[in-house]
Write a structure and sequence with these properties.
single chain
């Protein structure tokens, strides 16, 4: 892969993430204002079931991408068509099964998880079934985007995703403004999904031809081949998905949907914030594969340690300031001082930072052929999460669920870090040596920024001053303490040089 391709893919990853982040940032307070905490809680729980339904993917998205990439490299269009056709048939069957199960268990689901829906009780079934129908349709046609990623056209898929976020957000805001409520959100999401499917389909046929329509060649052998590769990915995905959304189901069952709203808002912000460092880690997978193939063990260790260094310098301020400035941030964003949201943010920020430390190792483990490490970690985290949260929610109420997630995130991360660092003969103190400078800079920056913010009464100017002052002091600390060595500076210069031809000059082939 050339540096031009990597630069383009990274750029469009950032573009799609940025658009989605902005839309989410604007949409959440609008939804809370229009629907209230109970209505927003209903929507959040419906999205949980959509996320659980996505497990019906069985890891096939990644599998389709893998095989399309292989066949594209050998210019085997017929093999690409076979993979896409097999995946489409599987997705169609999975979608029909999921929708049938939704209709079958809909009364039980509504009675168990939406008992406190109040005035929204009459639309819960409509929103749940409608959202799952949209998901099933999107699942079947996701073969188009998976194939486009396989031929390294992430510029297209991320561009479509960015436009989808804009259109979906705009339609949802319009539906709420016109008083259509939760039903309007379903229609908005459905229309935006159809738009994305049409666009991805158009680019698929334009770049890969219409062979999928002319010949029909799926067979049992090809279907089984897809399943065999995807099984490890599926197990990890099951554990991760249940782990990420279990608390919301627990709160809706034992407490109330209004508390689900508080948890959803806080967790959504953290999930968005932690994506910023993750965007920079994806190129580690092919690099790790290359080092593993050449048995360059020392290069692999260096790659891991340097990646951790860069994750620390990005994640510490992003998550650290989010926790330190949680109260003014929440007031500016939502217009209210919700203590559940603020405290949940501050508790989960630390756990998510520890969990984010697995990021470099996760991509490297895939590159060296050890996906089982992340699978073990996810399963351990899930078991601890389920057992601990069920017990603690009976004792501590809302914060029992939060603490269950807190402990599970840290425990799962510890398991993974132990496995990957043992594999690469890396000691914990080597990793932590890169952490103290960012932590020290953050502590000083946060203290001074909070002190400066205390002199200002108005929420927006207060938060703006705190954010600018805190970031400025943090960056100054990193520079003065010489966190980046000559190797880091040289790497940044080479990276900038490799990006400039892609964006500002005529393209040229430059291989890493």
């Amino acid at each position: 892969m050339t540096s031009e391709t990597i630069a383009k893919n990274a750029f469009y990853n950032v573009l799609a993430f940025s658009v989605n982040f902005i839309v989410t940032f604007l949409l959440v307070p609008i939804m809370l204002g229009a629907l209230g905490p109970i209505g927003f809680g209903v929507w959040a729980i419906v999205r949980v079931f959509v996320n659980y339904a996505s497990l019906g993917d069985f890891g096939l998205n990644s599998t389709v991408t893998k095989y399309v990439a292989e066949y594209h490299a050998s210019n085997d269009r017929h093999a690409i068509v076979r993979v896409v056709q097999c995946a489409f048939v599987l997705y169609l069957a999975i979608g029909i099964i999921l929708i049938s199960l939704a209709f079958l268990f809909e009364p039980l689901i509504v009675a168990t998880f939406f008992a406190s829906s109040g005035e929204f009780a009459g639309v819960v079934s409509y929103v749940l079934i409608g959202s799952l129908l949209i998901f099933g349709t999107n699942l079947a046609f996701s073969v188009f985007s998976s194939a486009l990623v396989g031929i390294q056209r992430m510029d297209i898929t991320n561009g479509v995703l960015a436009f989808f976020s804009l259109i979906n957000g705009g339609l949802m805001i319009g539906a709420l403004a016109m008083g259509y409520g939760l039903k309007g959100l379903v229609w908005a999401n459905g229309l935006a999904t159809c738009y994305a499917i049409i666009l991805n389909g158009y680019f698929y046929f334009k770049l890969l031809g219409n062979g999928i329509l002319r010949t029909w060649t799926p067979n049992r052998q090809n279907v089984l081949r897809l399943f065999r590769y995807s099984r490890h990915i599926f197990v990890g995905a099951v554990a991760h998905t249940f782990h990420m959304h279990f608390d919301k189901l627990l709160l809706s069952s034992f407490l109330s949907l209004s508390l689900v709203s508080s948890y959803e808002v806080a967790s959504r912000v953290i999930i968005q914030a932690r994506q910023i460092p993750v965007l920079m880690l994806q190129p580690l997978l092919p690099a790790a594969s290359d080092f593993e193939a050449r048995q360059a063990t020392e290069n692999l260790r260096s790659l891991y340690l340097r990646s951790m260094k860069y994750v620390f310098v990005l994640a510490v301020p992003v998550l650290g300031f989010l926790g330190a400035f949680a109260e003014p941030f929440t007031i500016v964003w939502l217009g209210v001082r919700d203590h559940h949201i603020i405290l949940t943010l501050q508790i989960l920020v630390f756990a998510n930072f520890v969990n984010l430390m697995t990021g470099p190792g996760y991509f490297i483990s895939l590159g060296i052929g050890r996906p089982d490490y992340s699978m073990y970690s996810a399963v351990v985290g899930l078991v601890i999460h389920v057992v601990l949260s069920v017990v603690l929610v009976q004792i501590l109420g809302y914060y029992g669920a939060v603490m269950g997630s807190f402990v599970a995130l840290i425990a799962g991360a510890w398991v993974f870090l132990h496995l990957i660092q043992r594999h690469m003969a890396v000691k914990l103190r080597e990793v932590l040596s890169h952490l103290w400078t960012p932590i020290g800079s953050l502590a000083i920056a946060s203290a001074l920024a909070l002190g400066g913010g205390a002199l200002i009464a108005q929420p927006l100017p207060k938060f703006a001053v705190m954010a600018v002052l805190g970031l400025g002091i943090y960056v100054t600390g990193i520079v003065l303490l010489k966190y980046f060595d000559e190797h880091d500076v040289g790497l940044m210069r080479r990276l900038w040089a490799s990006l400039r031809p892609s964006w500002f000059e005529a393209p040229r082939e430059t291989h890493f």
